[in-house]
Structures are given as structure tokens and as C-alpha cells.
Amino acid sequence: xxxxxxxxxxxxxxxxxxxxxxxxxxxxxxxxxxxxxxxxxxxxxxxxxxxxxxxxxxxxxxxxxxxxxxxxxxxxxxxxxxxxxxxxxxxxxxxxxxxxxxxxxxxxxxxxxxxxxxxxxxxxxxxxxxxxxxxxxxxxxxxxxxxxxxxxxxxxxxxxxxxxxxxxxxxxxxxxxxxxxxxxxxxxxxxxxxxxxxxxxxxxxxxxxxxxxxxxxxxxxxxxxxxxxxxxxxxxxxxxxxxxxxxxxxxxxxxxxxxxxxxxxxxxxxxxxxxxxxxxxxxxxxxxxxxxxxxxxxxxxxxxxxxxxxxxxxxxxxxxxxxxxxxxxxxxxxxxxxxxxxxxxxxxxxxxxxxxxxxxxxxxxxxxxxxxxxxxxxxxxxxxxxxxxxxxxxxxxxxxxxxxxxxxxxxxxxxx
Length: 416
Prior knowledge:
By secondary structure, the protein is mainly beta. Strands 7, 8, 9, 11, 16, 17, 18 and 20 form an eight-stranded antiparallel sheet that branches. Strands 10-19-12-13-14-15 form a six-stranded antiparallel sheet, with no helix packed on it. A four-stranded antiparallel sheet has the order 3-6-1-21. The protein has three domains: 2-26 and 368-409, no CATH class; 33-141 and 354-360, no CATH class; 169-330, Sandwich (Jelly Rolls). β4 (91-97) and β5 (102-112) form a beta hairpin. The protein is 11% helix and 35% strand.
């Protein structure tokens, strides 16, 4: 009888293994849950026809699309895996709050293409001691990204998430409940200084990309958001009574973009500037807004966020409002990259661009059941189990198969 039971168990486990291998790939059986994520740049999603390139996509999670109770309290078991179900994708956590059920992750997609559906996986559900945080912010961004501020800290200068370490010199006013977690509040007086560095130096005619999310509650004349001045050369981005502007001062004097439609108050908007060596383009929400047919002058001075340095001329008031997620690259990013950023990070356009699928359970957790004739070792295989009240055990809660228990309810079945 014992031999028969053992033989039955062996056949059962072999069958489970076979089903797991043939039905669908599973990156690692120690992770019991996964969710497919699709980034859709086709006409059925958010139609983007222009090149995009390597991109760090923002993943927002809340209790409507993610089971926080089945993840570690610190999100340490979160992993992002490429479509091949083998390759781990570099990522880092901006926020993971298992009490408020809110999380923000940035995940590197090595080559995001226009007009395609790119899929990858979010794995979680591993309560083991080896499932610890695998955050890798420095590899989340490509080598051309030289500064990324999430503004997620409190009471500390903004920290650069890239490998270049372009941290700010002083702290600002934190703004909880901003566009992406915590942002920064500018009051028109307190300025954030970003020290000069080799990676932030601009030669004459340099190519670069700059972007920032902004929101203001009142119209201000000529309020500066970001500026650099090096002797007689200067670069300024600001808002004039709701109208974004770009101003460049070089050997031929000062040029300023013409006025376009004003931004309404109390609305989050994405501003970007792309310099390609011949011209500088100002973009609003991923769309061209104004163009200066002039190259960038040489600048190797500190950068000022929220206004201009006191010694700068002409004097100008600082910006009063909220900001979030500033990024700077040392190349001219393609228009598709800017458009994806505006849609993905802003939230309003994200539902069509980024789709989170339903949770899938590992095949082992779906298939392994036990009764009085089978060993109850589902817990050893990474599944949750509980007594079925009939001398054996069954996966799930109160005997319902296929339902994972919350961590506080987990227990391993005993051998009958």
C-alpha cells in the first residue's frame, strides 16, 4: 500500500512537471504569481509612429490591479521579466506602500518600438528569505540619461537615479500626493542648485533633452522653471502667464520662442526641450509647441531649478507651483520617446498605452492537490495550502483550489 502511494505520488509530480513545462513557461517556481504587462503603441492603444528607443517605463500599482497582501511588505519579491520569460529587466522602486496599497516602479525596456505591442511580466508572491529587493536604478536608464530626479525624498536634496550621481546641492519642499508619489513644491524663492559636472556640460551646439512635469495654481509673469548662465551665455525655461517659453542667449543675442496657447491652472502638464545642434524645440504634452532656430551656447555652470541664480541677468521671478519627475539626457531624444513619456507618466493617457493583465498562478500551485493518499507538500513547492478537513490538504483558502492565502494565513500541510 505504501509503495502504491509512493508510486502514485511520483506519477502525479511527474505529470505536474510535464504540464508546467508544456502548458506555459514560468520564470521561477518560487514565485507563485505573475501579471502580464502590455505597452501598446499601435492604433488600438496609443498610436505612436515615431522612433522611441530604450525607455524606462513607469508602472503604477494600486489595490485595484495588484494583490499587495500576497507580496512582501517591502515589495522585495517584485521582479520584472522580459517577454521570453527568462531575461530579468533592470528596475527600481520609487515607492512601495503595502499599507496604502500604492506602488511606483521604473522598468527598463531595452528597445521600445513604435506601432507594436511590447509585453513583459511582473512576478511576485514569494515569501522566502531569498526574495530580497533587486533594485538597480543605475542600470534602469541608458548611458545617455545623465540626470533623473523622482523627488521622492523628504528633507534631503533630490537624488539622481542615474549612474552619473548628479545630486542636487540643497533640499526643497516635499509635495506628497504629487503626480507620481511625492514631488516638489516651489515657492518662487527657494531655489534648487544642481552643481556643474562633466556629464551636464553643454558645448556650443550640443544635443540634449530636458523634461519636467509642472502644475501651477495662479498665472505668473515670466516665472523661471530652469536656468543656466555662464558669463554672457544663458538658457532659460519658464512660464509667462500660463504660456511656456524657451529663451537662449549666445553670441547673436537673446532669442525667445513665440507665444502659444496658455496652459490652464491646476493641471499637470509635461514640458520637454530637445536640442539637436541646429535648433531647439519646446514640446508640451509630447507635441511640438515652439521652435528656436538657434544652437545652444556653451554652458558649464550650475543649473538652477525653480528660478535663476541671484547674480543672473536679467533678474526674473521664480516659479510658484508643483513639479515632478525631471529628466536630462545628453542626446536629442526622438519624438516618440517624448510622446511615450507624456502618456506613460501622466496617468491620463496611460490606460490605453499600458495595460496590466489579470494575475496568473504558477502551474504547480494550480495542479498540486492532496488527499489521504497523497503527501501534502505543496508548501515545499512554493504554493500555499491549508487543511481540507478530511485528513488531507488542498491548495487555496478553506479548501477552494487555486486561491492563494494571504501570508499571515499560510501554513504547510502535514504528511498524512
